[in-house]
Write a structure and sequence with these properties.
The protein has 297 residues and is an all-alpha fold. It has a single domain, classed as MetI-like (MetI-like fold). 73% of the residues lie in helices and 0% in strands. The chain is built from 14 helices and no strands. Helix 2 crosses helix 14, helix 8 packs antiparallel against helix 11 and helix 11 packs antiparallel against helix 14. The longest helix is centred in the C-terminal third of the chain and has 33 residues. The model has no long low-confidence stretch (mean pLDDT 86). It is found in: Cell membrane. It comes from Devosia geojensis. One of its GO terms (biological process) is transmembrane transport. Keywords: Cell membrane, Membrane, Transmembrane, Transmembrane helix, Transport.
């Protein structure tokens, strides 16, 4: 038994030593800071995390705040549209790109280029485009269309859709590349067999290709979903939460309370709710990808 434990420890010892700093970082920084965040969300800390334990008071105050409820509602609306449109447009573009078109590399680079930009840059660019005076509206009016209106950034009912356009512009290309990699992994013999059987192309995609790409879709959903939950840069760059609080999001609420209002406990309570949301996304993915495989084997 002793020799077995020794051999187990010695096996791949260099790899274990190399992984030690990363494991320590995960335990101390990620796990430790997460536990710290959750604990102090149950206190009444203000400028410094030194308050006394107050139970769920911060969470009751959180859900009684109109700004937080508005930010959650905005995130649900933005996230629902963003997730659906990003996956649909990304898959459609990947299908078109998979037709062995000319200059594929150039088109793929052009579509992926926005993803290389930060959300701050993307937000500023689209803020200029949608600016009523300097952007599309001003340009069209200068060209003679005096009644043309495109002031979504100043319209509380449309500002979320302005953010959605900018978010899709940046994220669709990345999902397209993921989907294209999944399509390229489908064996050509499957397509040949489908053509021999007389199955229409659209039916082949729906009934055969999509089920085979389940892992790609789940990965895309997790990546896009986690990005939606921590949406912050784009909002700050384009609207700063306005007009009023019509484009507030949870991440901005956390930042404002922790560093603007000097209410650390309230900001940590909001960030804990964001953490729970991320876990709701990641845990089912981990179960499907690892637990399900183990059960089937």
């Amino acid at each position: 038994m002793t020799r077995f434990l020794y051999n187990t420890f010695i096996r791949n010892l260099s790899a274990k030593i190399a992984a030690t700093p990363m494991m320590a970082t995960v335990l101390v920084v990620f796990v430790g800071c997460t536990l710290w965040t959750v604990w102090y969300s149950f206190t009444n800390s203000r400028l410094l995390p030194t308050g006394e334990f107050v139970g769920f008071d911060q969470y009751r105050r959180l859900f009684a705040t109109s700004r937080w409820n508005t930010s959650v509602n905005n995130l649900v609306i933005y996230g629902s549209f963003s997730l659906v449109f990003t996956l649909v447009f990304g898959f459609i573009l990947a299908v078109l790109m998979d037709q062995k078109i000319r200059f594929e590399s150039a088109f793929r680079t052009i579509m992926l280029y926005p993803f290389a930009l930060s959300f701050i840059v993307t937000g500023l660019v689209w803020q200029w485009i949608m600016n009523p005076t300097l952007g599309l509206q001003g340009t069209m009016r200068n060209m003679g269309w005096a009644n043309f209106t495109f002031d979504w950034l100043n319209n509380p009912r449309m500002v979320l859709y302005a953010l959605l356009i900018a978010g899709l512009w940046q994220g669709v290309g990345f999902v397209m590349v993921l989907m294209l990699a999944g399509l390229r992994s489908v064996d050509d013999e499957i397509w040949k067999a489908a053509r021999v059987d007389g199955i229409p192309t659209w039916r082949t995609y729906v009934s055969i290709v999509l089920p085979m790409m389940r892992g790609v879709f789940v990965t895309a959903v997790v990546l896009v979903g986690s990005g939606i939950v921590r949406l912050y840069d784009l909002v700050v760059a384009m609207t700063d939460g306005g007009p009023g609080i019509s484009s507030e999001v949870p991440a901005k609420y956390v930042y404002n309370y922790m560093f603007g209002a000097g209410n650390i406990a309230q900001g940590l309570a909001a960030s804990t709710m964001m953490l729970i949301t991320v876990l709701i996304i990641i845990v089912p993915w981990a179960y499907l990808e690892f637990g399900g495989k183990g059960r089937r084997s």
